[in-house]
Specification:
CATH topology of one domain: Tetracycline Repressor, domain 2
Number of strands: 0
Number of helices: 9
Radius of gyration: 19 Å
Shape: elongated
CATH class of one domain: Mainly Alpha
CATH architecture of one domain: Orthogonal Bundle
Strand content: under 5%
């Protein structure tokens, strides 16, 4: 990695940490430059605009999510085992066990839900991709006869993602000590309804 690439990665890492707390609109190029002991013009040499930085931060979050949640689950055998692994890693992500101290996507969903533009478009695509990944994993459980043939995989994915969203609120906002138990209870009920 060149010095320029290394500096750019440092900027993205710091911006991701800030965005996890303050959202992408909360990013201040001046504060980022000061935090990293760069000139503002030095920072602008890597990112021609705040929007370019926001898109790169969002892509970095997507890459981390794929690394920490999706890829470990896909290493498991197809079907129920893979789905359980995906759920475990998803909850770990929501808890904030990676570089982002919370699920940046849930915060950004509120921040950009009615704000048109390239950042919203990229965020919406990332969330459609996540939903589709869950649906594909569920479909493999159907194809391997672990789930019933008439299962609505899209509905399953919808509820799977929904459990993670309410878990975020219970765990992070409400600091509910029963959040994990309730999330797994909801997940097991979902799995039971899907079973043959």
């Amino acid at each position: 990695m060149s010095k320029g690439e290394h500096t750019k990665q440092q900027i993205i890492d710091r911006a991701l940490a800030v965005s996890s707390e303050l959202g992408l609109e909360g990013l201040s190029l001046g504060n980022l430059a000061a935090d990293l002991k760069l000139s503002k013009s030095g920072l602008f040499a890597h990112f021609k605009s705040k929007e370019v930085l926001q898109l790169d931060v969002l892509q970095a979050a997507c890459d981390l999510f794929a690394r920490d949640v999706v890829r470990p689950a896909l290493a498991e055998s197809r079907g129920e085992r893979r789905l359980r692994s995906l759920f475990d890693h998803y909850l770990n992500w929501v808890r904030g066990s990676g570089k982002a101290r919370t699920c940046i996507f849930m915060g950004l969903s509120q921040e950009y839900d009615d704000r048109p533009g390239p950042v919203r478009d990229a965020l919406a695509k990332s969330q459609r991709d996540w939903h589709n990944t869950v649906a594909r994993v569920v479909q493999t459980a159907v194809e391997t006869d672990q789930f019933r043939k008439d299962l609505d995989v899209e509905q399953f994915a919808y509820e799977f993602v929904g459990i993670g969203m309410v878990f975020q609120q219970a765990c992070k906002l409400l600091r509910d000590p029963t959040a994990d138990r309730r999330a797994y209870t909801a997940f097991e009920a979902l799995m039971e309804r899907a079973a043959r």
